[in-house]
């Protein structure tokens, strides 16, 4: 969990160093893209000989004020995060 306090250090404009203070959006939105790339080599019968999967999570946040964001990922029902 990633949270930032509400008390600002002296001389700071925002408690989040990379975010300007007082940001207001007309629509509070959060866009999350899961980008996956699969590379595989198959034999002539369609059996997988070698496979590689790469992925990334790309976020675009348009939320007003300061947020507390908690992310969780894992296979559904596996009990792992």
TrEMBL record:
Residues 27-81 form the MHD domain. One of its GO terms (biological process) is intracellular protein transport. InterPro entries: Adaptor_comp_med_subunit, AP2_Mu_C_sf, Clathrin_mu_CS, MHD. Its main location: membrane. The keyword Nucleotidyltransferase does not apply. Keywords: Membrane, Protein transport, Transport. GO terms for cellular component: clathrin adaptor complex; endomembrane system. The keyword Protein transport applies. It is found in: Endomembrane system. Pfam families: Adap_comp_sub (PF00928). PANTHER family: AP COMPLEX SUBUNIT MU. This is MHD domain-containing protein.
